[in-house]
Hints:
- The structure holds two protein chains of two kinds.
- Chain A is 23% helix and 17% strand.
- By secondary structure, chain A is an alpha+beta fold.
- Chain A folds into two domains: 73 residues, Ubiquitin-like (UB roll), CATH 3.10.20; 121 residues, Alpha-Beta Plaits.
- In chain B, the strands form four sheets. Chain B has a six-stranded mixed sheet.
- Chain B is globular, with a radius of gyration of 25 Å.
- Chain B has five domains: 57 residues, Arc Repressor Mutant, subunit A, CATH 1.10.10; 90 residues, 3-Layer(aba) Sandwich (Glutaredoxin); 202 residues, Rossmann fold (3-Layer(aba) Sandwich), CATH 3.40.50; 79 residues, Ubiquitin-like (UB roll); 85 residues, de novo design (two linked rop proteins), CATH 1.20.1440.
Amino acid sequence: MSTVQFVLDGQAIEAQDGQTILKAAEAAGVYIPHLCAFKDLIPHGSCRVCSVRVNGRIQAACVQTVTAGAVVESETPEILEFRRNIIDMLFAEGNHFCMFCEKSGNCELQALAYRFGITSPRYDYLNPDRDIDMSHPDVYLDRNRCILCGRCVRVSQEVDHKTIFQFVGRGHEKRLQVNGTCLADTELSATDEAVAACPVGALMPKRVGYAIPVGQRAFDAAPIGADVDARKGGAA
Amino acid sequence: MALATASGVEDICRKLGNDRTRLMDIIIGVQRRYGCVTHDSMEVIARAVGTERVEVESAVTFYSFLSVKPQGRVVIRLCNDLTDWMKGYDAVADAMAKELGVTMGETTADGAITLASTPCIGMSDQAPAALVNDVVVTHLTPERGREMIRDLRRHLDPPQLVTMVGDGNNAHPLVHAMVRNNIRRRGPVHFRDFESGKALTNALALGPEAVIKQITDARLRGRGGAGFPAGVKWASARATAAPRRWMICNADEGEPGTFKDRVLLTECPHQMIEGMTIAGYAVGCEQGIVYLRGEYRYLLAFLEHILQERRDQGLLGRDILGRKGFNFDIRIQLGAGAYICGEETALISSCEGLRGDPKNRPPFPSQSGYLGDPTVVNNVETFCATSRIMLEGAAWFAAMGSGRTTGTKVLSIAGDCRKPGVYEVPFGITPRELLEAAEADNPGAMLIGGPCRQMIGPDRFGGRICYDDLATGGSIIIFNRARNQLEIAERYLDFFIDESCGHCTPCRVGLVLLKKAVHKVVSGAGEPVDLDAMRALSHFISQTSRCGLGQAASNPVLGALENFTALYEGLVAERKPGLLSTFDLSSAVVDAELRVGRQSRYV
């Protein structure tokens, strides 16, 4: 496959032709924060956390493919502010209580908030009325914590080859729905990749809450993205 | 209304070939027959077309004309667009609700009549208006609203409400609508003689590449609003190697205040379909789709008839005009109440039987659009102009207009004026000339291009309507000096909140937060810093949203802040120190006040 060169925050980066900016940056050891993007799933472009400025226009790095000579800005004050804003909005939109959430310490939304130094809410909470589905023997779905990133929808279809989840409604009434009267009525199994793919505490295996001691959780020692940052340090 | 049966629903699916991509027509069919699409019906549909129930639900819950819960046999959708509100929507809605004994959104106890509201139905020139099932009623007053309900209670047959038909093809038996065309000014491109087949004959004589060159030389830009050069789009789709390509006509004009495509569809259907056929020939398509907004369903039978007429005349179908191998035919896809489907990739999603979410770009539709094939989407007016260019030539067309914007534009003018209606004018005309032509009444502001574009004050009435200055897809709304600009901005914000698809965070959440910020200021609780916060939030939403809706949705607020700064500034004041400036203490303690049963004195 042919390669192309582009510039990311002043640094020349070699990328595969057709690769997304997010993947190319990650391969080069540059972390671009993201939430809805996940492994090799078809890009969703919904959370907009990975917004970058490409030749002057804001684009989602998870969707936009690299073009030769493109000038991409990522860590500018303006864009960092945009990203922070999005994370703030996701907190305001749902009902997120980190202090007693089982996902705490392993939650990507929380980890991004820490990475961006968010310590208090910027926006009024919308306090939506959302429900919890405890019907399944091994997995529960807490819509209060759902950020509508669509990872479960896509992993279930693209990796597990099932249709368990889909979005219904539109606008601010959009929500996650399951293919049955409730989660127990679907083909979901606790070992489905879709469960593990949830970045927040919306889709959780039962009976393993708080199993990992504080100090050993995913983001206790280093902030989210540190693994990518470290690669760059190693390469330099 | 009859309860849905599995065999009845299966029957609807079978008639559409149990085809997953025709899901829109299936769920619209079930809705019309049974008044709702229940979870049981979704199961039946999913089995028939080979998908899952939740996928069907995803589509059904997206469109506002479809419902999971039963609706009345007659559904009254009162248009709550701003122009209707200016002409007395509140009083009409109130009178109708009282007469029915329900509140907005409810159905009468006997299940007969549902009263609902809906955004712009394309009748701003004859507001207040409503859709009663498919029937359009115009110029409503409280008294006419009450009368209408008394009539409906008697016969439950909306077509009987049409006692007088409008002009032109509105009187055609297949249209039979009380809608009036209100063509106020005819121009050289659209509302004049058109002989079917001549433009197409000229195109065939030129050959596909030369047709694209003519369109490029005419510098024809998309008339829907975005103004993308049509020739570039066509050339790109033609150059993409593929076994199949598609030509789609966007007849989903939903921008509040626009209705000119309604009049073009009514009076120039041959010119439009011929333009589509020419485009299909140039790009190398064998199939076309007209995406007709659900609000214009009253034109469906008429347009189907025109298509059949053209097939009979050898102007559509196989070996068109005797040219061996030139095959092109068109189907009509109905929408079901979603503004976002006017965005071309959302429109394509809807044609595919999906919820109307816009798609990620790249790839662009001209490379990979409908069902993954190269697809061109152009507006009704663009196709009408295509036909005329084939008759009169590129140079003739390019000689009209202003600077880089050639040709004429059909405008829909409504609001505070004596002559609302459709005006075909050369590009470059000034807002002031339009105010004179429409006999505006004490104008204080004009919304050029609908809420997704810009509100201008008198200082810009001397500007130019063209892509380099004041761009518009056709909507022009006039506001007199007495209108409350802040309330207007707030109402349009509500519209965008309701119509957001909800895919991306900035649009889905940001608009709701912006609305709270605007409301705080309008209600008098704001501080100067809140105005800066509104600007920052608006800028953020417009920069980071995925599609044109989110990118434009904060324009009404930004426009009001820019043009009517003094209005907002007059509402804010510095408060006592000690409180976080963006914190609204009085609303924060409402719950507590209710619980203790008394009001705080100092907030």
